[in-house]
Amino acid sequence: MKKVLCTLAFMALAATTVFAGGNSETKVTQETTKYTFGGSSTVAPIANAAIVGFEEANPGVDVTYETTGSSVGIKNIINGTFSLAGSSRELKESEVDQGVIKTPIALDGITVAVNKNVSIANLSMEQLANIFSGNITNWKEVGGEDMPIELIVRDETSGTYGSFTEIVIQDTLGKTASQAKKAIVAKENGEVATKIASTPGAIGYIGMGFASIVTNKGGKEVSIDGVLPTIDNVIDKAYPISRSLYIVTVGSPKEGSIESKFISYLLSDKGQDIVAEKQFIPLN
User: Fold this and answer.
1) pTM (predicted TM-score)
2) Residue with the larger pLDDT of the pair 121 and 207
3) DSSP secondary structure string for all residues of the chain
4) What angle do CA 176, 124, 154 make, to 5 degrees?
5) Model confidence over 187-210: pLDDT tens digits?
6) b/e map of 248-278 (b: 16 or more CB within 10 Å)?
7) What is the pLDDT of residue 18?
8) Multiple choice CATH, 14-107+244-277, 3.10.180.10, 3.40.190.170, 3.90.950.20, 3.40.190.10
9) Domain(s) of CATH 3.40.190.10: residues in the chain
10) Options 3.40.190.10, 3.30.420.270, 1.10.10.10, 1.20.1440.230; which CATH number does 108-242 get?
């Protein structure tokens, strides 16, 4: 059974209070139904902000979003733990074969950022691929200082990890190439950004909406082949490390269900305004 935790919290309990004059008043407690969604940490800021407005528009509905990473989120909709998940990567063939479908809710660029003590401001895609695959280990190899490169990466369950591996490393170096094992691993975008900002010699990749965590600490975004990760460059497909963000379900949600209503809310003007407020790119 789905962790649409159909936990009908208080099933319309009626309590009767008797007053001095003999009159009585009946109080009905609001029936509450709990739903648990989860998945991508990149999608999380959008989902959590949308939940606030969605709950206001749907009294008696209590929604939570668990940040588990895209792969775990998709696994959990397949096994019934979640009824809806966020994903920042494309679906695998094995997931599609199990009935998983995707609905785009936003566009995003994966920003490459460096610590404030790194002078490099531009890298080619080939240089970037070789850095994150472990073939280049010192900044002097790409025109920087003689200083070890510290890689900050996501864990392997992350959709951002999967997207970056495919777009940057495998499309450049071949399908068998992978990210270097010698790296500092962080579980979500905010943690990656914080580690980039605090680790000398660091380089890492994050969703565009998290870049300010690095730049506010003196670090910078790196252009790739001379192109910066801006909204216009992602929309125009000029920036090469771009992707869609998705809500995924097993099959199409039943019309009128909370899952269907939540997806519609994300695609509405209000939902797309939230996408923009969280520094991602709306679909319209």
Assistant:
1) 0.76
2) 121
3) --TTT----S---EEEEE-TTS-EEEEEPPP-EEEEEEE-TTTHHHHHHHHHHHHHHSTTEEEEEEE--HHHHHHHHHTTS-S-EEESSPPPHHHHHTTEEEEEEEEEEEEEEE-TT----EE-HHHHHHHHTTS--BGGGGTS-S-B-EEEEE-TT-HHHHHHIIIIIIHHH-TT----SSSEEESSHHHHHHHHHHSTTEEEEEEGGGHHHHHTTT-EEPEETTB---HHHHHTT-SSSEEEEEEEEESPPPTTSHHHHHHHHHHSHHHHHHHHHTT-B---
4) 55
5) 888 999 999 999 999 999 998 889
6) bbbeebeeebbbebbbebbbeeebbebbeeb
7) 38
8) 3.40.190.10
9) 14-107+244-277, 108-242
10) 3.40.190.10
